[in-house]
Design brief:
Length: 108
């Protein structure tokens, strides 16, 4: 059993004079568990990342018009306007947030 990097080992009768008592030896690890975890991680396939696409001027117009009409209902905006394939509701919300940061006066 592993406890914060330490493993409980059964001791012999010579250790501490008590038979079967569990002792904790610092620095010892259960390498079989580590090997199992490494094996599992190696078998996993990495997901392909989505290609980043810049917003076109037309899409920015759709986004601003959609926010005026529907508020911050990003899925509704996404479904109502012809955005690029692969665009998500999170993309829309992040783009709108960055547009708002650019329009607000900055504190010096």
């Amino acid at each position: 059993m592993e406890l914060s990097g330490q493993v409980k080992h059964k001791t012999t009768a010579q250790d501490k004079g008590k038979q079967g008592e569990a002792q904790i030896y610092p620095g010892k690890r259960d390498w079989s568990t580590t090997y199992i975890c490494e094996y599992i991680l190696r078998r996993r396939k990495k997901k392909k990342r989505r290609k980043r696409k810049n917003f076109t001027e037309e899409e920015v117009g759709y986004l601003l018009d959609g926010v005026r009409k529907m508020g911050n209902h990003w899925n509704s905006i996404l479904w109502s306007y012809p955005f690029q394939k692969g665009r998500t509701n999170v993309d829309l919300s992040r783009k709108y947030r960055t547009l708002q940061k650019g329009n607000s006066p900055r504190k010096v």
